[in-house]
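ESCALATION

Customer reports they have been waiting on this structure for their group meeting. Please prioritize. Original submission:
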Amino acid sequence: MPTTRRRWVAAILSLAQPGVGHLYLREWSRGMTWFLLWAATALFATGISTAPALTVAGLTAFVDRFVTSLATLDSVQSLALAAVTGFAVVDAYWLAVRHEERTSQGPTCPVCGKEADPSLDFCHWCTTELEWEYR
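Update from on-call: job pushed to the front of the queue and completed.
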């Protein structure tokens, strides 16, 4: 996959749902943070303050009420959700660019993705044993 394609896929996924582009880049905590920020903003904007019942019917009713409330947001509340989404898209794109720059500088660890020292037989970041092809 070309490296420039990765940044656009991450940005489009974050546009669809903030945090998903970060999960695509394997940035688990950052992706969950963006998703939770978006969810908290959406719940605050819709005014939903009651937790759903932990049954299928209760969760279905909650999702239905949530989607209906999202459709009726005023411009300020919609702008707040759009801002969170926009920042998540920019962050995912920027993070993918950083990943590309880091991997173009030298060999990387296949497990953690960080730059590896080719003179070592292990990754000094996550201690994974490495086997180099030129040996």
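Sent to customer with the following note: Residues 118 and 133 are 10 Å apart (CA to CA).
Escalation resolved.
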